[in-house]
Amino acid sequence: MAAKIKTIGVLTSGGDAPGMNAAIRAVVRKAIGLGMNVKGIYQGYKGLLNEEIVDLTARDVADTISKGGTLLYTARCSEFRTEEGQNLGAEICRKHGIEGLVVIGGDGSFAGAQKLAARGINTIGVPGTIDLDIACTEYTIGFDTAVNTAMEAIDKVRDTSTSHERCSIIEVMGRNAGYIALWCGIANGAEDILLPELYDYDEQKLINNIIGNRKRGKKHHIIINAEGIGHSSSMARRIEAATGVETRATILGHMQRGGSPTCKDRVYASMMGAYAADLLAEGKSNRVVGYRNGEYVDFDIDEALAMQKNLPDYMVRVSKALSI
Ligand code: ADP
Ligand code: F6P
């Protein structure tokens, strides 16, 4: 069946995530296979407004699947939050013959895609964020690489923490969501996991736990603290003063967003990128690609943005049960 539109664009927006290149590659190659032309837009919505637009061929995305970051670069663009910016964005798409657009990013980027869809540009969102905080999907591109990177770093901190019989507070990314913290907490066998969705700011409980664990013979005390709670350095100072246990804070930071994507990220990104090209070829618009119950699916962007996501309750309870 011939594609319903001739030319599509692809951009990455918001924080980068390992696997974004695999998603771009899949969009480009699947779309070309369906008879569409593809244009790459640099630096997200900022590049769209600056008309940083190039033709992309199947060869242009060769040797990219294993690379971290995004070959299209990414940006945050406040101008695109305004009606003038959105009108200009749609006008520029039309000027370049871009009838459909794949937006790889998070909820904010999808809100931008929604605005372009309302202005007649067919848009499809692909979930790309290490935070796993997009409600309509069980998986977001970049999460697996990020948690593996963080897990390996935390293992290293744990070695030195044990040698010195210290308490270590390790802060991981995730914006306001606790998924990276929860997964690392379980994978690294942390004594405490502080999750923005659940933390009660009762530091005395943490102090009692550290003192209790010392009495039970534990040689270290690993606290995984989510970025959404933050303040790891001042927390470390207070805990050391209250427990007498030497305490250090480590903020892992942006190293969690880099690196070659894992197999899982490459495959999910490839599938989601290809799925987005299929949707555009079918003439669909204002949709977000997701992964649910073992299948790739799509949702209306308005509905997707209205959905809520909660941390898995059983996983939280197991993380506590295993930390004794
Ligand atoms: P993410 O996509 O990872 O959630 P941001 O929230 O920073 O990241 O959003 C990325 C970009 O998407 C913003 O810099 C802005 O250009 C655009 N954007 C975010 N929210 C909106 C909105 N409500 N309307 C239009 N554009 C938006
Ligand atoms: O959304 C991905 C993310 O890395 C968050 O975990 C973090 O809060 C944010 O982006 C950091 O953004 P920036 O790179 O602009 O500091």
Helix-strand topology string: EHEHEHEHEHEHEHEHEHEEHH
Structural class category: alpha/beta
Helical residues, percent: 40-55%
**What would the average pLDDT be, to the nearest integer?**
97
What ligand species are in this complex? Answer: adenosine-5'-diphosphate, 6-O-phosphono-beta-D-fructofuranose
Question: Can you tell me about this structure?
Answer:
This protein has 324 residues and is of the alpha/beta class. The protein contains 11 helices and 11 strands. The strands form 2 sheets. The protein has a 7-stranded mixed sheet, sandwiched between helices. The protein has a 4-stranded parallel sheet with strand order 7-8-6-9, with helices on both faces. The N and C termini lie far apart (59 Å).
What's the SSE blueprint?
Elements: E1 7-12, H1 20-33, E2 37-41, H2 44-49, E3 53-56, H3 83-95, E4 100-105, H4 107-117, E5 122-127, H5 143-163, E6 167-172, H6 179-187, E7 192-194, H7 203-215, E8 221-226, H8 232-243, E9 247-251, H9 263-281, E10 287-292, E11 295-300, H10 301-306, H11 313-321
Helix pairs in contact: 1-9, 5-6, 7-8
Adenosine-5'-diphosphate binds next to α4.
